[in-house]
Design brief:
About 5% of the residues have low confidence. It is built from eight helices and 17 strands. With 256 residues, it is of the alpha/beta class.
Length: 256
């Protein structure tokens, strides 16, 4: 099995390499990357590995930026010291989410799980496994989601209830909250931060510029290459496309 390690701390990368070799001496470590930029260059220039071991915080940003720049269709195991990104990680092609320091037994369990998924003959089995893990993680975590956001209107502050929000989107380097009446307010959160404060049964991270409330998708249309096109209410000027990678989970999210 060929493995790519993406980890910006050398001791942690060496530890992962040793743990993998203990599990299977035949595992080949293709390379060790420490940044988003270097990883994107590597993935564009090389064949995808059988597995990626991926840290969340890299030297030049969060690892999720990699998925926005290059398609990653091989299994991924996240290894991180932070548990707040678990929900976002499971939107991607992840097998497991391991907290540092990674334990041998837990890593082996993740690798065995990957073997089981690879042996499945239909992609439906893989998707259902991933969603089951996601739902189990949601239920097991005692997460406190935000019930309201404070926004500034001139010289005053207004509270917007989460239930009244249609979507959040990025525009001209700002994050905007748009309520169901179509009013827009800038807020001091990046989308990658916001998704950790929102109930994943109600909000979905459609793409790098948009998080929508489940009621905001007024129309859903099939699009090219397995993608979907959304018409939002209230309307958004930008075209809203769900990627082929996110479409299966998006459909399940809608049908929950």
């Amino acid at each position: 099995m060929d493995v790519l390690i993406i980890e910006d701390e050398n001791p942690a990368a060496e530890r992962l390499s040793n743990l993998l070799k203990q599990y299977d001496p035949g595992i080949r470590i293709l390379d060790i990357m420490g940044s988003v930029e270097d990883t994107v260059v590597w993935l564009k220039a090389n064949k995808l590995p059988d597995l990626i071991m991926l840290d969340i915080h890299l030297s030049d940003g969060l690892c999720f930026e990699i998925f926005e720049q290059v398609p990653v269709k091989c299994p991924v195991i996240f290894c991180t010291a932070y548990d707040e990104y678990a929900l976002k990680a499971f939107e991607l092609n992840s097998i497991d989410y391991l907290l540092k320091p990674v334990q041998q037994a837990k890593l082996e369990k993740s690798l065995e799980k990957m073997k089981d998924i690879r042996q499945a003959k239909s992609t439906g089995i893989e998707i259902s496994t991933q969603v089951t893990d996601l739902m189990g993680l949601i239920k097991s975590r005692e997460t406190s989601y935000k019930s309201r956001f404070m926004v500034k209107i001139g010289n005053r502050i207004k509270a917007v209830k989460t239930e009244d929000i249609a979507y959040f989107h990025s525009h001209n380097k700002l994050t905007l909250l748009v309520n169901k009446e179509g009013s827009s307010y800038p807020i001091d959160y990046a989308l990658d931060e916001l998704i950790n404060f929102l109930d994943p049964s109600i909000f979905f991270h459609v793409n790098r510029k948009l998080i929508i409330h489940i009621d905001a998708a007024r129309e859903i249309h099939p699009y090219f290459k397995g993608r979907m096109k959304l018409i939002l209410d209230p309307p958004l000027e930008d075209e809203v496309i769900v990627s082929s990678q996110r479409t299966p989970l998006f459909k399940i999210w809608l049908d929950q």
